[in-house]
């Protein structure tokens, strides 16, 4: 479950100058105290949202592992592009882990900044409480002194109130900047999550294709072993036929002379009869092997090159500093 993007709307408190009325400083002081309490409440809410965002990033930092491909008795070193495939085995996990770590560092920095602002607001609240006591004492002294001492009391009070107003304006400005920063981090986090899910889905598709190719290679190896066995059986039958003794003729003639005269002719006839079949079988087998190797090379290389481009694009996007 992902958090919704927070909406921050912090406006700077309007600057007000106390009038010469004797009760106006107390009213202004109460109004600023109320505004400061509102800022403190908004800051507490942002701290809670930042903590939730930090927890979410920590949960997402662990990349889900994909089950490995079952090993087969195939020599991948003889296949084209095998070294490229081995170098990009863990590219997805490294890119996703780096993106999650960067987002986590940004959230931790934001949380520390919000803590500092919270401490500053607490300090100002303490100052406001102290100044309220001072204002009450000043008002009591003002009532005792009368109209003659009004200007000497109001002027220092105006300076202190203006100073507090400036501090509150600075806090409001900082909170607005932090709000923009949090919104930008949410956008970056959503983009990183979307790209990470796309990479994982692409990896699963490519692994399914590789499994299909492995099955085809295994089937091809079985067919080649079967063809080899048939060729060996034919060769053995031919050798047995050649070594079989010739039956004696019914007519009276010399067998030794007959064998010596016809041996070369029979051997040449058998060789010429068997040779086309052997050549045809060998040519067909060679063409099948070459065609399968070309298809396997083209399929693997296109997918591995696409994977390499995706990893390079993600790496370039994550290495650029935030705007």
Compact overview of the structure:
This protein is 80% helix and 0% strand.
Spatial gap, N to C terminus? 27 Å
Molecular shape: rod-shaped
| Count of helical regions | 5
Write down the Rg.
44 Å
User: What low-confidence regions span 5 or more consecutive residues with pLDDT below 50?
Assistant: 1-25, 63-89
Task: Characterise the protein shown here.
Residues 1-34, 54-92 are annotated as: Disordered. Keywords: Coiled coil. Residues 100-134, 203-237 form a coiled coil. It is a single chain. The chain is rod-shaped, with a radius of gyration of 44 Å. With 323 residues, it is mostly helical. Helix 4 runs antiparallel to helix 5. It has one domain. It contains five helices and no strands.
Key traits:
323 residues; mainly alpha; 5 helices; disordered N terminus
SSE map:
Elements lengths: L23 H37 L21 H6 L3 H55 L4 H94 L11 H65 L4
